[in-house]
Amino acid sequence: MTPDEKTALVATAGKRLEGLLGRPLTVQWPTPGDQITIDERMEEIAQRWCVSPLKLVHLTPESDLAGPDRATALSLAIDKAAGGGVTPSPKAMARAYYSLEGVRYRLWRLTRRTHPDLSEAQVAELVTEANRPDAIDALESLLKGLNPN
Questions:
Q1: Does residue 31 share a domain with residue 101?
Q2: In terms of domains, do 134 and 98 share one?
Q3: pLDDT above 90 covers what percent of the chain?
Q4: DSSP 8-state symbol, 24
């Protein structure tokens, strides 16, 4: 993508985001600190969707997993959970980035230097479940245009 194409993309996506949220916001390319903080928050969000293997076995009706099958499943679950719990899958991590909470946090984090008056709570009021898909599209377009590579 040429520099002129990137500039046009950022301008168009910025106007879409402004129209969607009702106020202009200047999104910046994430610094390494921003990216680490965003990644950590997304992992926290994804972790909430994880179920301990041991808990999952106990939630399975005994009639579906009885006798030796249940003993084997419990043994495997204990082995998997012994390392400190469950790690979110790549799919869960991707879902976190596009969840309502994830989009709100990313938008706040990427605008906090240009709009220090804007709080996370205010961003939460701007980005709703109803406009989340459009906010994702606009944010991703902005980031594509801002990408220095």
A1: yes
A2: yes
A3: 48
A4: -
